[in-house]
Amino acid sequence: MTNSLLNVLVTRPMPSGEKLAESITRRLAEKVATTIVYPLFRYQPNQDAEVPTKAGVFIFVSVAAVQCAQQRLPLSDWPMTQVFAIGDATANALAQCGIQCLSPTQQNSEGLLAMPQIDALSNTPIYIVRGEAGRELLFERLTAKNNLVSYIESYAKDWQQIHENDVKNWYIEGINCIVVTSEHMLNHLFKALQYSEYKAYWLTDCQIVVPSKRILNAANSMGFKQVSVANGASDEAICKQLAMIG
């Protein structure tokens, strides 16, 4: 990409998408000309999520997992002996609920599993608080050490249809950078872009910003050529990576 200004498409759901867009506009005024928010899905809190009665270790995988669990029942009333968060943003969300937690420097599941506090767990009740479906890595690795692992699905995702005219408008408006913060979001986006009349542009010329090498590899396998990796999915990490593009 040349040193032209960025026109950024943020694909996160609301309200985090709007928050990220505001951060980009505020921090990168000389770098970014336009920031558009196009949420790929909406959160649907699960009011029927089961609250465990047996105390155990809780792992929260996202801000939405925290917020929707808090809506179900104040987290101060959950039977938590120890709490972990994947990522700074998730840790901050827990702090806002009055919950202290530990989080890895490498802000993903692999980073969490590398923590000595997690590695030491065995024969322990562990609850992974997340949305409907997701990666199975944590469950598999923690179960392998004889832990009693359960999911608490505090929300579902209502995926939005990406219309052909929307993709065309992105091209007309000069979108040259798309922020995608999960592999499921990348898959959903790719399904729309691969049938676009501008497919070659999206795959070859448009910058894709992702939060991990795992998602980088997925993007490369789909044919995206201009992919860069932020150090996590926080607003700060995304903004730092955008500042480096050029």
From TrEMBL:
Catalytic activity, EC: 4.2.1.75
Catalysed conversion reaction: hydroxymethylbilane = uroporphyrinogen III + H2O
Tetrapyrrole biosynthesis uroporphyrinogen III synthase domain residues: 24-238
One example GO MF annotation: uroporphyrinogen-III synthase activity
Single GO biological process annotation from the record: uroporphyrinogen III biosynthetic process
Keywords: Lyase, Porphyrin biosynthesis
Metabolic or biological pathway: Porphyrin-containing compound metabolism; protoporphyrin-IX biosynthesis; coproporphyrinogen-III from 5-aminolevulinate: step 3/4
First-level EC class: lyase
Its job: Catalyzes cyclization of the linear tetrapyrrole, hydroxymethylbilane, to the macrocyclic uroporphyrinogen III.
Family: Belongs to the uroporphyrinogen-III synthase family.
Protein name: Uroporphyrinogen-III synthase
Species of origin: Thalassotalea agarivorans
